[in-house]
Amino acid sequence: MRRFSIKAMQTDQPDEGRLKVHVTAASGGTPIPGARIAISYTGEPDRQLEEVTTDSSGNTEELELAAPPLEYSTSPNEEQPYSEYTLSITAPGFEPVEVVGAEILPEVTALQEIQMIPEQGEEYERFVIPAHTLFGDYPPKIAEAEIKPTSETGEIVLSRVVVPEFVIVHDGVPTDSTATNYWVRYRDYIKNVASSEIYATWTDAAIRANVLAIMSFTLNRVYTEWYRNKGYDFTITSSTAFDHKWIHNRNIFQNISRIVDEMFGNYLSRPNVKQPILTQYCDGRRVTCPNWMSQWGSQALGEQGYSAIQILRNYYGESMYINTAEEISGVPYSWPGSNLTEGSRGQKVLQLQEQLNRIAKAYPAMPTISEDGIYGSATANSVRTFQSIFGLPQTGIVDYPTWYKVSEIYVAVSRIAELNP
């Protein structure tokens, strides 16, 4: 691991966070080896700290960067709790990309995905990341009923709860016809929102409680076709007044990503209510919201030893419980129902092997394996390599998060789910 210190420039940055960058082609999701990433502190953009290069899987090594004290982000504080870096990415044959304001929190790993388009002779793409919602100034949520009526004439409501492959995010308030619509993978959307609205330094229980609230709210929008029923062509907006803050091309955090991968099939329910609950919340510091979850309050309860469901019931009542969606859309094969390990056999192992071999064509660090339906040491080694490339625990065991990550990457590199929005 490399460490870049900017303490000479920032005396208030005594702690360290980590950053890993993954660079792929926008079309097809294939890795871009040899991409160069120049890193500078956003406060001094002309002073480059270091330059790193991606490997055959499009990944940089994990880098250590200076960050503010941990306590700035674990309890309410007036100080900015994260440091900001500018990343300038270049690769032969591709348009340059610049991300300004990548957030580094202490003691956690930031993950920056970069998608590059083929060179067209245009100016570089520049993305400026705005302030985190707990630090910046954003409009509070406009209150809504947590359960939507479904008896109105002409209303579109799905027959069951399905986790979508994509959501369409309207990057503005609903009535802003000039705002861009983005097709975003559901899990990526949840990871982005969680990284934008809570801090990755919080307790595991607080993060899980907030992720469940974000997922349930989002699936309520999906299930009730809330915006389409109003004549719009999107699923959800990036406005905090109406929905959640989603920020195009922002970095996410590894621990948040892993939690979402473990839980993305879940949502919050009440007895005898079919739809996911529209779980609204506020920061609990600048804005108070009786009967909603307080974000800072959830962190305080997490530090007191509350579990995720105890935190949620503290705010939403004892009748709230965790449910599981009936279907995960956009995947070639469903989860086998239990982990695949060495010694496993059958159709699900064969499906896994087929997908791993297709991924290996795009990611040469992965070995090609026999497609025989037998989970031997070679298959376990391929799985470990896959897990290493995509930031999962390197167990060699195909658990729920690994199965669906394999499905996601397989779909991307084989273009099964190519969109024509």
Care to give the gist of this entry?
The protein has about 425 residues and is an alpha/beta fold. The chain has 9 helices and 19 strands. The two termini are about 40 Å apart.
List key phrases describing it:
9 helices; five-stranded mixed β-sheet; alpha/beta; 3 domains; 421 residues; 19 strands; Immunoglobulin-like
User: How do the strands of the widest beta sheet line up side by side?
Assistant: 1-5-2-8-14
State the end-to-end distance. Answer: 40 Å
Listing every helix as H and every strand as E from the N terminus to the C terminus, the arrangement reads: EEEEEHEEEEEEEHHEEHEEEHHEEHHH
Residues in β-strands, percent: 15-25%
> What's the Cα radius of gyration?
21 Å
Shape: globular
Structural class by secondary-structure content: alpha/beta
Number of helices: 9
Mean pLDDT: 93
Bin the helical content.
Answer: 25-40%
For the biggest sheet, the summary is: 5 strands, mixed
Low-confidence stretches: 5-9
Number of domains in the coordinates? 3
What is the number of E strands? Answer: 19
Q: How would you characterize this protein structure?
A:
- This protein is α/β, with parallel strands linked by helices and 421 residues long.
- 26% of the residues lie in helices and 21% in strands.
- It has a five-stranded mixed beta sheet with strand order 1-5-2-8-14. A five-stranded mixed beta sheet has the order 4-3-6-7-9, with no helix packed on it.
